Structure to design on (158 residues):
């Protein structure tokens, strides 16, 4: 399954995001507080989605947007800056336990603009930041660094 199902949305489980303009328009402390709640929600939604996939016997493609704006340079964000860090860590740990106990396969797929082989050095550098973020999410989920939990990337170079 990719990200989240309509059935889970109908149960009130949906991911939250935040736009760059909204984040930058608020006082930083307020932006961080709102974003922290959204990240926590997104990891909890991931946990419920994992349960749903396990019940159905499906594999799961983890959303690229668990931590909105994480790779935005102007935002200067990391997990340690979030007020809900401990709850977020616990939710990731809950996900990790579900994954280990069920042997569900998980993957992630950064968007098509993540091209580490790009001839444009700016695109290549931004791609590395994005891939590092995705790798961090996979690590936080306790997934193996192997073909069993791939990060699918675009290596095309026009």
């Amino acid at each position: 399954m990719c990200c989240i199902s309509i059935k889970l949305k109908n149960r009130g489980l949906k991911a939250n995001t935040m736009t760059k303009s909204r984040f930058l328009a608020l006082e930083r402390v307020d932006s961080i507080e709102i974003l922290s709640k959204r990240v926590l929600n997104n990891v909890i939604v991931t946990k419920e989605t994992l349960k749903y996939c396990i019940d159905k016997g499906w594999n799961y493609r983890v959303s690229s947007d668990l931590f909105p704006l994480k790779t935005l340079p102007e935002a200067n964000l990391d997990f340690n800056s979030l007020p809900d860090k401990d709850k977020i860590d616990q939710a990731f740990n809950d996900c990790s336990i579900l994954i280990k106990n069920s042997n569900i396969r998980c993957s992630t797929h950064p968007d098509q603009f993540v091209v580490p082989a790009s001839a444009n050095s700016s695109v290549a550098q931004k791609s590395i930041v994005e891939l590092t973020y995705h790798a961090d999410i996979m690590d936080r989920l306790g997934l193996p660094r192997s073909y069993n939990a791939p990060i699918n990337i675009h290596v095309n170079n026009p």
User: Anything to note?
Assistant: The first helix runs from residue 6 to 10.
